[in-house]
Design a protein that fits this description.
The chain is α/β, with parallel strands linked by helices. It has helices spanning 17-36, 58-68, 86-100, 114-119, 127-141, 175-184, 195-208, 230-251, 267-273, 281-285, 303-322, and strands at 3-7, 41-44, 73-80, 104-109, 147-149, 152-154, 167-172, 188-190, 223-226, 276-279, 291-294. Helix 1 (17-36) runs parallel beside helix 11 and helix 6 (175-184) packs parallel to helix 7 (195-208).
Length: 323
């Protein structure tokens, strides 16, 4: 059976404070529903300063998800590691790990938008060194023992629920990211299907004398929406998919390797491209893929339509997949 994901980034270009509050509450209820129906993980992410309200605070959202659910994992993929104060992040993740009983999964990347660093007053040119410090600090902090940090001795409490520490993966598409993961003995999450980078990571693990594993995206990552009438859904809601695709494309330079990349400029092009797909439950259940990523509130999708998609996924497609 494929690994199942429900993704939320809470984008809504036309939102008012009231409508966005309703969207956030709906996402938490959707997470609860997904938990009850056997979905494997809720995935969220972070971006800063986006005009469409792209979620900037993934751990706050993750805490709400973990508090509302009892089984499903919550994956933050990915944080922009250098934008965080390491000790505070260690505390926040420890508390979330306790709340969720070990269900929080964090992927730490370094991002690719200099304007996000500028907004938060972080030096873009130091992002590699800052990421190294962050990862090292988290691993030391989660032992619960005193350690040296920026010239002083500190101790982070409480200790997390998970042993030896909360699930932490190093994300990225560069050899530097793969080396970082290997050096710290952490699993590696390439940002796209990059078998050659996985091989390099394994070589580096051998060189550093560490062990690890890779969470590799499939060769083709598709964002799904379910409907009994895909033609009607594309006609009514295709602009929501296109909005997100165009926003994401505007942030990606040619050297960025991403599992999700669209070149479409119209709804018709987007549909033909296949990065965003609207499927019937029967079509979804017949997909031959390692993972299924449902995106029910994509691009400001009306909440009612998002619920229709999620219910079709959970009540019609998943039983076929499990069967």
């Amino acid at each position: 059976m494929a690994f199942t994901v429900v993704r939320f980034n809470l984008v809504d270009p036309a939102a008012s404070p009231g409508s966005l509050a309703a969207r956030y509450r709906a996402a938490i209820e959707m997470a609860r529903y997904a938990d009850e129906h056997g979905v494997d993980t809720v995935q969220t992410e972070e971006h800063h300063g986006a005009a469409n309200g792209w979620l900037p605070s993934p751990f706050t959202f993750a805490g709400a998800v973990l508090g509302a659910t009892g089984r499903i994992a919550c994956t933050v993929s990915a944080i922009i590691g250098p934008l965080y104060e390491p000790l505070r992040l260690a505390e926040d993740v420890a508390v979330l790990d306790l709340i969720g009983g070990g269900r929080l999964v964090t992927v730490a990347g370094i991002g690719y938008r200099p304007e996000e660093y500028a907004q938060l007053g972080v030096d873009w040119s130091r992002r590699g060194a800052l990421q190294d410090e962050l990862v090292e600090t988290l691993l030391l902090a989660w032992t619960g023992e005193p350690f040296a940090y920026r010239g002083r001795t500190v101790r982070v409490t409480p200790r997390p629920y998970s042993r030896p520490h909360p699930t932490l993966l190093v994300g990225g598409s560069s050899k530097a990211a793969a080396r970082r993961a290997a050096r710290f003995g952490l699993p590696f999450f390439p940002s796209a299907h990059l078998p050659e980078l996985e091989a390099y990571y394994r070589q580096q693990c051998a060189a550093f004398g560490t062990e690890g594993w890779t969470m590799m995206p499939p060769a083709r990552t598709t964002l799904l929406h379910l409907s009994d009438d895909p033609d009607r859904t594309w006609a009514l809601y295709g602009e929501h998919f296109l909005h997100e695709a165009r926003t994401y494309a505007s942030w990606q330079s040619t050297d960025i390797k991403s599992a999700v990349r669209s070149k479409a400029t119209t709804v018709e092009e987007l549909r033909a491209e296949g990065v965003y797909r609207v499927l019937t439950p029967e079509e979804c259940a017949s997909l031959d893929t390692e993972s299924l990523v449902l995106h029910p509130l994509c691009g400001g999708m009306p909440v009612d339509e998002g619920w229709r998609s999620l219910r079709l996924f959970a009540e019609s497609a998943l039983p076929r997949l499990k069967g």
